[in-house]
Amino acid sequence: MRSQEKGFTLVEIIISVSILAVLAVGIVSLFITSHVSLQKAMDLDNAVLEINSLIEGFHGNENSAIKASRFTLYYDDNWERSTNDSVIKYVIYGDFIQLSDEQEGLFNLNLRAVRLKPYPFEKKDKYEIYSIDVIIEDSSYWSE
Amino acid sequence: MIDLKSQKGSSMVLISLLLVTLVVFALLSVTISASELRLSEKNTEYQKTYYLLDSEGKRFVYDIKSKIKKILDFSDNTVLFFKHLDSLLNESISRSVSYRYGVPEMTIERTFVLEENSRNRFLKVKLLVRQPTSIEDNVNDICSVLEWRLSHEPFEFNTTYDLWEGKP
Fold first, then answer.
1. Domain count, chain A
2. Which domain does A100 fall in, by range?
3. Residue A39 resides in a domain
4. Fewest C-beta atoms under 10 Å: which of A37, A45, A47, B23?
5. What is the largest CA-CA distance in chain B?
């Protein structure tokens, strides 16, 4: 009779493959977690940068017609402004409100950066990246 | 040199090494991205505090300017301008009147403090209010910002270090 000792049995292969699969899933999930964290960090940095530039733009603006209004800005994957619906990934919502009737010429600007697509393995459809409230003064108000 | 007579188990060793390498790189990647996220959050907090203080300062300047406008609207007497302004200002606001070429001017000062990551950040606003020459004067010509300084406690207020005075 020939010896049956060479090679692996089916059970041995199934066990080793399943052990490898479990380990591989663990490792892949670590890489995905890392990717999501990095993406969140990048989104936060870009949102802060974009919102800061918007605020600074409004600080020097004398056109009060723009103020006391709402606006929405659309951005693509690289935080470039876009109007193409298929590539829009981020949105910045702006809301100007006059503080009170007595405080004419002084506005509260609320800015919110939102990611429209969910991060990998996260359930939230929309994700608010950053939001801030700032006071904007209408520089033309006092010269009237 | 020892010659291995059997290669049994060598694939097991290779797979184990591969797995260990992958785990090490995955952990490194997670650590780096987590610290990157922490850094971004810290920067966000810093920017938020900056604009909060800036907003408080803007509100303060607006408040002073509206008081000046109120005086100009309701009083014809520009000589009593500082007396009226003094009575309208809150007691907690520090101010001083000085004379420049015989003309009075008021310096109004206020410091705003905000805590950020268990450290205080300050905004010092100093305004110069000149006496109006007529009630037609523009508020922006009467009131101007002398100082608008944002500072961080450990860097700006630590005077325990000896400064090198440039002498050998």
1. 1
2. 10-137
3. yes
4. B23
5. 111
Question: B138 and chain A: CB distance < 8 Å anywhere?
Answer: yes
The closest CB to that of B140, out of A30, A38, A143, belongs to A143
Q: What is the DSSP string of A111-139?
A: EEEEE-SPPTT---SSEEEEEEEEEEE-T
Nearest to A48 among B23, B26, B47 (CB): B47
Measure CB to CB from residue B29 to each of A31, A134, A137 and give the nearest one: A31
Domain ranges of chain B: 37-156
Within a domain: A142: no
B37:A38 CB<8 A: yes
Instruction: Give the single-character DSSP code of A34.
Output: H
What does chain B look like in DSSP terms, one character per residue? -PPPS--TTHHHHHHHHHHHHHHHHHHHHHHHHHHHHHHHHHHHHHHHHHHHHHHHHHHHHHHHHHHHHHHHHH---STTHHHHHHHHS-TTSEEEEEEETTEEEEEEEEEEEEEETTEEEEEEEEEEEEPPSSTT--HHHHEEEEEEEEEEHHHHS---SPPP-S--
Q: Does B34 touch chain A (CB under 8 A)?
A: yes
Pairwise CB contact (< 8 Å): A45 & B40: yes
In this complex, is the C-beta atom of B18 within 8 Å of any C-beta atom belonging to chain A?
no
pLDDT of A115 higher than 60? yes
Residue B158 banded pLDDT, cuts 50, 70, 90? low
The alpha carbon of B133 is separated from its chain's Cα centroid by a whole number of angstroms, namely: 35
pTM of the model: 0.81
- Tell me, yes or no, if B24 comes closer than 8 A to chain A by beta carbon: no
To the nearest 10°, the Cα dihedral for A96, A100, A104, A108?
-30
Identify whether A70 is part of a domain.
Answer: yes
Digit-coded pLDDT (tens) for B94-114: 888 888 887 888 899 999 998
